[in-house]
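re the bet — no i am not wrong, look at it urself. input seq straight from the record:
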Amino acid sequence: MEVSLVFGIVIGMLLSPADGHVLDHFSDSPECVKFFYKEKVPDLGASQPNVVRICQRFLNTYHFATLYDTYHRIAVYSAYFFKPSSGGGREKRWFVEPQLVSPAWSSEMEDGYKLSQQNPDIYLGEKQALNEDYTNSGFDRGHLNPNGHHAVPSRNATFTLTNVVPQNPTLNQNAWNKHESKLTNLFNANCHQAYVLVGAIPSSNNWIIKNSVKRVNIPEYLWDAFCCIDQNGRPILSGAATALNTELNVVVERNLDEMVDFLQQFSDAPVKELFSGQCKAALD
């Protein structure tokens, strides 16, 4: 048996492969599909090549779901439900997904720096962005699923690089940050539960380049959409927004139907609904 194969088996054993994995469908895991309203997973991005479905696991618990584009090395979207933040949980670590390095590796997100130090001969970034890709790039590590929309430990779990995109610093630290805070106030004041999708639309050919290699696509737009329900599970409020990923620093608010039309411009496949019934209350 070749030395490299033996080495790979040993590493896989040391990392203790877990029961979770990258899924063929989010609905394969009850603990993952729950992040979608009425367990309805949108068709958006499902037929794209090079996408994987990640149930984001931290401390042996699932915290949100991400449809991840391994070619552009940014997420199509992350899906979660809002929980008021209780502070804390702002990580200095940036996590990576071991299962994107090898299916035999753990599905628990791990500190990318620590994992690379433990495995110096194995490249972790073939199918995902790494922390060093963002260093000195001029772009923020912009959360899709925002850490401020969660309590610990879900807040910690948002610091995985499969949940961030290269975001213009002016937008990230100003208009988009204010938009996220506005949603926090809206959800706290009105919603028994709020289901949220936050995504990115890749640019045609704008990349973070490291050592002459295209590493991480710089998205053209960021977007989000939400469905707010009452204590009986009935939709009471919905909305969406888009932002050009530039120093223009403007967030445009939309309704869900307008959001579908917007996303359809960038999709070869029908986008259809973002939430079950487009988050509209059924007629009595």
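see?? The two ends are 68 Å apart (CA to CA). told u. also Residues 175-190 form the longest helix (16 residues). so pay up
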